[in-house]
Write a structure and sequence with these properties.
Blueprint lengths: L1 E5 L11 H16 L4 E6 L13 E5 L7 H19 L3 E4 L12 E5 L3 H4 L6 H17 L2 E4 L2 H11 L6 E3 L13 H12 L4 E5 L8 H15 L4 E5 L7 H9 L6 E5 L3 H10 L2 E4 L8 H8 L4 E4 L4 H5 L4 E3 L4 H13 L1 H14 L5 H15 L3
Parallel strand pairs: 1-2, 1-4, 2-3, 4-5, 5-6, 6-7, 8-9, 8-11, 9-10, 11-12, 12-13
Helix pairs in contact: 1-14, 6-9, 7-8, 7-12, 10-13
């Protein structure tokens, strides 16, 4: 069987984030598990050879690089559609929520979230117009859909009217290198990043949906209430519309205890999770929320939001809070600071919860979805 795959999120260098990581981990396993089948990887730019996971992978670079709504249109409805029409694979897998309407090749499309439908103010202009026009059509045109959580599946059902029976679930997972670390190594991390003090940790791109202004306000209230030496580390790249977060940061009474690290390496991220007093991750909305299980895998207690996919992913092993209320978030931070037994319970439950998720299982879900619609 010849399988075409949209791999434009397999970016050169060390740039993989949520969707790119899902693409990488599932495809690596699919290629290895099915050596008798040929995978045609459709890149939109020069590719890194490390993404050619086996001899049954054939790379193709299709122009133009698709990083703008007009270029998305040109790539998916032009270059990809032409390639599919010419080569006629058995199925087209797209792990990033986009596909092409201009093909008769059966399509399996992975949807990570419909955040733009619920927070339209967070994207604007041509991006919002593209999403709102094409995403429901992509969902309707795909013979099989895959969601990364039950919450996302229900969102597809309720927002676009897709029958639940057409939607499989393939969760994200925490990579094997996310693990607890010895106490001495944790202390070294605290010395390096937090002057030896305890710290709360946030991990994620700096953008509106991540709710950093309310987390910062909550941290300031936590400091006022407790007088603790605990710090807040914010790990992640500056994405879009991050201005309000920086405005709040400048107004904090305790901003000297907030440290923005930017992006870090995977190994540094493991160290930061493992040494944290707790991970504080309270977005307004997530299709999955992978920092929850990465933190749990590193034996970090987790505070997260009480809505969308986050309670589902946390699996009863996190402290939940209203993301719209800095006071509620602050109260949760106080509890995490002052209740060591709560932290111990969350760590224990978290290490159990992460066993529910595996890339092997998610890769098998994708394989079954492709098998169910592929042309003979």
């Amino acid at each position: 069987m010849h399988i075409a795959v949209n791999v434009r999120f397999l970016l050169p260098g060390d740039q993989l984030e949520g969707i790119g990581r899902f693409t990488y981990e599932t495809l690596k396993r699919l290629v290895a598990a099915h050596p008798a089948h040929t995978f045609h990887f459709l890149f939109d730019r020069a590719y890194d050879a490390r993404y050619l996971f086996g001899p049954n992978v054939v790379p193709h670079v299709l122009a133009p690089p698709a990083r703008h709504p007009l270029l998305w249109l040109a790539w998916f409805e032009g270059a990809v559609a032409l390639w599919l029409r010419t080569h006629k694979p058995a199925v087209f897998l797209s792990p990033d929520g986009y596909t092409t309407l201009a093909t008769r090749v059966p399509r399996v499309t992975v949807f990570h979230d419909l955040a733009f439908e619920h927070f339209r103010e967070h994207t604007g202009g041509l991006v919002q117009r593209y999403y709102r026009f094409f995403t429901p059509r992509f969902a309707q045109a795909s013979q099989r859909l895959v969601a990364v959580s039950e919450a996302t599946r229900q969102d597809l059902v309720q927002t676009y009217g897709i029958p639940a029976a057409r939607i499989s679930i393939a969760y994200n997972a925490a990579d094997a290198h996310f693990r607890p670390l010895p106490a001495a190594q944790q202390q070294t991390t605290r010395e390096r990043y937090a002057a030896g003090k305890p710290y709360f940790l946030f991990v994620g791109a700096l953008q509106p949906r991540k709710n950093l202004p309310n987390l910062l306000r909550a941290f300031d209230e936590f400091k006022q209430r407790t007088g603790a030496a605990t710090k807040l580390l914010i790990v992640g790249r500056t994405a879009w519309q991050a201005g309000p977060m920086f405005d709040v940061y400048q107004q904090l009474q305790f901003r000297h205890d907030v440290h923005l690290t930017g992006r870090v390496t995977d190994e540094e991220l493991v160290q930061l999770y493992a040494a944290a007093l707790a991970t504080a991750y309270v977005p307004f909305f997530e299709g999955f929320g992978i920092p929850i299980i990465e933190a749990q895998a590193c034996a970090s207690p987790v505070l997260t939001s009480d809505r969308s996919s986050m309670p589902e992913v946390a699996g009863g092993a996190a402290l939940l809070s209203n993301p719209n209320s800095p006071a509620a978030i602050a109260e949760a931070l106080v509890r995490l600071q002052q209740e060591p037994e709560l932290r111990r319970q969350l760590i224990e439950k978290g290490l159990t919860n992460v066993r529910r998720f595996s890339w092997e299982q998610s890769a098998e879900v994708l394989w079954q979805a492709m098998q169910s619609v592929a042309k003979p």
